[in-house]
Structures are given as C-alpha cells and as structure tokens.
Amino acid sequence: MTELHLMTVAELSAALHAGRVSSVELTRALLARIERHDRALNAFISVDAESALAEAAAADARRHAGDAGPLTGVPIAHKDIFCTRGQKTTCGSRMLANFVSPYDATVVERLRAAGVVTLGKTNMDEFAMGSSNETSFFGPVRNPWDGARVPGGSSGGSAAAVAARLVPAATGTDTGGSIRQPAALCGVTGIKPTYGRVSRFGMIAFASSLDQGGVLAISAEDAALLLGAMAGFDERDSTSVELPVPDYTATLEQPLKGLKIGMLREFFAGLDPAIEQLIRAALALLHAQGAVVREVSLPNLPLSVPTYYVVAPAECSSNLARYDGVRYGHRCEQPRDLTDLYERSRGEGFGAEVKRRIMIGTYVLSAGYYDAYYLKAQQVRALIAADFERAFHEVDVVIGPTTPTTAFSLGAKSADPVTMYLSDIYTIGANLAGLPAMSVPCGLLEELPVGLQIIGPHFSEQKLLNIAHRYQCESDWHLRVPRGFG
Amino acid sequence: MSITRSQIADIAHLARLALSEQEIPVYAESLSRVLGLVEQLQRADTAGVTPIAHPLPGQRQRLRPDEVTETDQHELYQRNAPQVQAGLYLVPRVIE
What we know:
The structure holds two protein chains of two kinds.
Chain A: H1 9-17, H2 23-41, E1 44-47, H3 49-64, E2 75-79, H4 106-113, E3 117-122, H5 156-163, E4 169-174, H6 180-186, E5 189-192, E6 212-217, H7 220-230, E7 260-264, H8 265-268, H9 273-288, E8 292-296, H10 304-319, H11 338-349, H12 352-365, H13 370-394, E9 397-401, H14 417-421, H15 428-433, E10 437-445, E11 448-455, H16 461-473
Parallel strand pairs in A: 2-3, 7-8, 7-9
Antiparallel strand pairs in A: 1-3, 4-6, 5-6, 5-10, 9-11, 10-11
Chain B: H1 5-14, H2 23-38, H3 74-78, E1 84-85, E2 88-89
Antiparallel strand pairs in B: 1-2
C-alpha cells in the first residue's frame, strides 16, 4: 500500500472502505506529519488534535455501523475563514485572534455530515486580502517547493498543506484568485465554483458579489468528491442558487472528443515564453484526446484588475464595518469615548493591507466619486461578463495560464500593492463574471509548479472537472511532491 | 491621481480607522498608486452600458415569511464580547 500521506482522497476512501486503515490511524499519521513539518511551513493557524481524533473515532464507529459514505473518515483542513463551532476562527487577523465561533459554516456542517474529519484551520492572508499569504497576522506561509518563496494567497495555507501532503485536501475561498493562484504556485488542483454554487453562510465575508468557496486537492477526482459534498442550495445564504448538484464524479471519464477549447489571446500576450510552452504542451495533450483548440479574444479582460480594485474594496469597506470592538473582536485599551473605541479597535485590529483596502473602498464610495469609480467599474464588469458570454457561444471552455509567474520570493512584492495586485491578472475575470474556474498543475519551471487555468460557463463544474481529470489521466504533474515531503 | 495626507486623514475618519502619523504618508502614496491603476477604467467606452452589481443575471432576491426562526442564544454569542454586564454589551458613556 502507498504511504498514507501520499494517497488521494479517492484512494483513502477505498482504503477506509476495505478496512485497510482506520480513520483514527490515518488521523494520527497526518497529525504527526503536521507536527513534524508545519514549524517550517506555518500552513496552520490552529490544529485541534483532540477533536480530530474524536471525529475520527466517530467516523470509524459509523463505518462499523454500516453507515459510511465515500468521505467518512477522510481528514481534511479548513481555511480559517470558515467558522467552526467551538474552535478559533481568526480569518488571519488580529481582529479575530481570540474569536471562538458559536456555529459551523454550512460548508463545515455538510462535510461533517459526510463524516469528514477536521484536522485544523489553515493560514491565510488577513481577511483573504492578499496574493502571497504575507498579510496574515500569524506570519507568512512558506512554499513547500522552496521555503524562501511564497505559496500564493489568500488560501496559501491550504495550498501549502496539500502540496506538502500534510492533508489530502483542504477548503479555500476565491474572491479574485485566492484558490487558483496558490494552487498554481504550490502545484495542486484547485476549483472555484460558480458564484452561488457553494453556500457562503459562516464564510467570513470579504467582497460579497465575488466571494465563493471551493476546494484545493491533489487531483480533479478528489475535488469532484469534495465539491459534491459541499455544494448546494442553502436558505441561509441569500445568494445561494436553487439548482440540484450533479454527481461530479459520474462524468469524470467522459471522452473529450469534439470539445471546443478557446485559447485566450489576452492571456498569451506578453506571457513568459517558458510558461507559454508548458500551457501549449497541455493544450496539445487535450488536442490529442480529440479536443479542438482555437483562439478567442476577450477585449475587455485586460481591465479586470482595475475593475476589481474598485468593486472588491468597496464591498470590503462595507462588510468590515461590522468589526466595531463592541460585540466581538479586538477592543483597544481604555477608550476615551465611543468614536475612540471604534477607531483604535479597528486601527489596531486590522493589518496594513486590510486598512488600505477599506480606505480605497471608502474613497471610491464617497460623495462625488461614486459615478467616476464605482458605477464605472460596475459597467466595465458588465462588459467583461459579456465578453465571456460571447466567447462561450463559440467554445465550451477557455484556457490559459493561472498566473503570470511561478512562486515569487517572500518580500519581493510586498512593498508595492500594485505589483502584488497584478499577480492576479489572469484569475480575476472569472470572479467578476461569476464563472467556475480551475487550476491544474501542468509542469515545473526550475523546480517550481505552473498551473493551467480552465474557465467555463456558469454551472459547468462537471465539464471543468472532466477536462482536468482526463488531463490528469495522461499526465503526472499533479502527483509530483516537493523535495523533503515525499 | 494623487491623494493628499489630509485626504487620507479624512478617509480614515470616515472608515473609523485610527492611523499613526507615520502611516498617513505611506497610505497617501499607496492609495495614489492604486487609484492610478484604477484610472485605466476611464479608457473603456461604457456609454449606455447597464452596470451590474451581481454576476448572475436574472437571479432575484429571495424573500421568506417574517417569522422568528432563531432561538435566544445571547449567552453563547456574548462569550466573544470584550465587555458584557447583565447580558448587555458595555461601551463608553455616550450621553453625558
């Protein structure tokens, strides 16, 4: 039998089913791995061994009782943006450093119901605002492929934990690329579903018209298994969509013959030739399976980043107004009056990037500037969404790179926000249009992973997972493990 | 696009964020840079384009009957509060 930590969720599911391993044994093995490796990586904000082992014992009991599903007893980690009842949920912020959630997020609740074991909560950029995991109050996460480099962000802890095989899978959230970009930089598979597909109840809000929960895993098959358990209508989220969830695993093997793939012209203009070569090699593999590749153009896509940096900060300035130092969260010492209490609690509780985004949002929404910024951005957002819609009349999916570069060095972009923001140049479009998108490992460049991005029409998760799975049947980039973690 | 230090102080107050004297020039510089990036939007011809606030066209806001569905759990919720007395959140005196 393959070593436990190298097994995919599908393989673990089979091993648990066959009785070759118990959930308690598996949970112990992974807890020991976290203990051994996480001091160097800092991928976890908290690990609750006691509750994990209790959940594992309950999963084993459920299996003995003949009541196990495919995910029963499989251990995973949750990004620390998802509320977990009775456990710390910090969102990577000093503001919530001592916040103990009184309830479970819907995603957590559904995975618990499926018998999934929670090993811990993963590190992240503060309030999911960042592309490098350097804005976390709990310190940066290190990329398992090179400890001097960032894992990407904001779901950097989840991506690093899966890449280092500390967990077989982890949840994440994606507002402008926060699942796909770290998945690409860490060499794991990530899916951001359609806006409204996965409930946001109990997922701490950043930008409500963009935020969506998803999965980081070793393979597309694993992502399909987990997404199936997480997704679906939830009356507690007003943006949740009332559509049935298909069995994402049932269509993984479908042949790609006749699939129409659009190569995004705007994503290849000025792209690093070494990355372009790997993306073209992946396209050739899909072509060999019968897919037809043609070029498509989305002329407004280059305006994604400026559009996002109006819309997302505007929504964040509103969402984060709730942190007032009164009902929960950080409170300053000895406030003089109520205004002082608000201002100092927020000034101390939020880090530099969060404060910057709140101020950008406050500015673009303020009297006299609303039309020039917010309204304009909402109009350009409509143009970008229309570009995608037009492209999907011609092709089934569009494909390009996930990121413009491989993982960059810690500190390389933290001094200039604009340089950092541009690392999400290829991922933001899917959020603005609410589209499902994946990142799939498609090669290594000087021992650093490169991700292939696949974007589809609304609710085409089945198709994306099918393409990713067929690609992974013919390639092994997703099975490469960074040195020292094998 | 250039944001002045006094504009930063005004924005910070609107957002109820206390900033130190050292932070103000840093934010003046970085907000100016970000708004410079945002200026690119002016290039787009948006005449007659209907703005969108939400990425799923046609989705309507659901309504539910106006019924009490939550139970009273204030003790549980107030465990996270910085200061509570007799089931009430404590703040500095507002009315002198």
